[in-house]
């Protein structure tokens, strides 16, 4: 009986279940034929991202190593957003706020560690810290907390309201950072010395790239594990048909909220890495333009696909670097490409390279 | 002094509110009738301001420029609808957001390419400069009063258009049941283009009028666009009445907050700190207002749609 429903039902929930148990021969072989092309494209993408910077480093091109770190970090931020947009169907137009908050945690912490002034002295003393581990932990926790507050209000709404309210909350934090003078206001805050890690020299370009790369792979692994779990199945169903999920006895609201929080935490960690990469954090990291760009990256790569954000980030940063080198009006061409992708290539670069996802 | 300041700032708030309404009414109409979320609405605001500045500079007539601004924005709006927007009506909101985000990039960079990065100069005509003395010895710029007057006039005209004319009837019918008015023989695609161009024209008018007060530059539409989003979320998406009340609310709260919050904090803080805290909080005030309203009414104050 259960087997019967899973074959007749084309929903992704059933597909995922049968994919795990692989009782259904037809589906399994279909999944295998996908693995060849899709797996190859994905492995190539990840392999090149790892190998090219290593090669560049030993050839003495530090610029390209830092470029790869930039791609990696932006991909990681997009992995976070993809969890909300692609898997959860929550079109958040304010994810820059978590990216920026993560960045400001790194910046403010380094600022106080450099100045030897405490971050707060009442009711208890909180000193600054130049340890990345502390920065990362605080960034993840604060972003999760902020996302819990924003998500709890925003997820009461749906559709356009959700898009606009997440945008508005992000703008609120953006204007706050702009007009709060202590940490540089609209001028931003420099990080004079990159935060440190035990056992590794974080100021070395290649080491830092490898740290970022590990972060990206971890974020993707977390997403993948999450989406294969019962929680992921519930989240998928909340996206496809939340009434049906509710009928099955699961309230969609907490499922969405938790994945929104995890999504924000991943993006926030990427933000902390980004601030340390650039040695600078400014309200631009919080701006709605960046939220838009993150969405663009998710869509360019292929929405709701594990490797989509990575493909999108590679494409986006390459376009920015190459076109930006030719003309200062490169965003005009970015706009045209994006328009073309949205209107004519709905499944993104990965959809084109690696074939469609099973649940599309 | 204090009453004078209050009157002056209240008027400023109303003036901001009426200009926001010109933006928000187009946005909310387009969403109400076509179900489309349009980020590129701020670009029409910019187009209107640039066209007005250019034509005013070459002819010397502000009124001519204003007409050109409205016409240019409406024309660009109609063109964008024909080329891009009509492919998006049946797409999910995510696609609409991205496509119109792409339009923003194209418009902003295209404008920068043509006109350069430095702002254009546009000032109100000489017969609108100067001050009037209001009761309570408040001296207030004539031009701002004219903006308030135009905002009110256009609100009334829009109300009459929607409640009294055939076009308005179709718009209302489109809001309540899109399929049905198509089935009744109304040319939907023409109606959609018309509504979109109307909204774009209103945004262009707002851009031209505000452009004479501030500066005409690339990206000028974006802060206004986001304020207009806050307005229609507060008012209820799709509702013109909600847009009007939301616009006035946002305009007044934002303006008064910026003036009075720093003063308020000076009562128990050193002045330099009070200015920082006050202005930071003032910048967040309307978003807090929105969050509070949505916490109680998730669909806004006057929702036209479920």
Automatic annotation (TrEMBL), chain A:
Topology of the protein relative to the lipid bilayer: Multi-pass membrane protein
Pfam family, one: BPD_transp_2
Coiled coil spans: none
Listed transmembrane segments: 40-65, 71-89, 96-114, 134-153, 160-177, 205-222, 253-274, 294-317, 329-354
Keyword Transmembrane helix: yes
Domain of life of the source: Bacteria
CDD domains from the UniProt entry: TM_PBP1_LivM_like
Key words, A-Z: Cell membrane, Membrane, Transmembrane, Transmembrane helix
GO MF: branched-chain amino acid transmembrane transporter activity
Compartment(s): Cell inner membrane
GO cellular component, one term: plasma membrane
The protein's name: Branched-chain amino acid ABC transporter permease
Taxonomic path: Bacteria, Pseudomonadati, Pseudomonadota, Gammaproteobacteria, Oceanospirillales
UniProtKB/TrEMBL annotation, chain B:
Molecular function GO labels: transmembrane transporter activity
Annotated localization: Cell inner membrane
rRNA-binding in keyword set: no
Membrane-spanning intervals of the chain: 20-41, 61-85, 97-122, 142-162, 191-213, 225-253, 274-296
Key words of the record: Amino-acid transport, Cell membrane, Membrane, Transmembrane, Transmembrane helix, Transport
UniProt-listed CDD domains: TM_PBP1_LivH_like
Entry-linked Pfam families: BPD_transp_2 (PF02653)
GO cellular component, one term: plasma membrane
Single GO BP term: amino acid transport
Membrane topology: Multi-pass membrane protein
Family statement drawn from the similarity comment of this UniProt entry: Belongs to the binding-protein-dependent transport system permease family. LivHM subfamily.
Matches recorded under PANTHER family: ABC TRANSPORTER ATP-BINDING PROTEIN, BRANCHED-CHAIN AMINO ACID TRANSPORT SYSTEM PERMEASE PROTEIN LIVH
Stated name of the protein: Branched-chain amino acid ABC transporter permease
Organism: Vreelandella boliviensis LC1
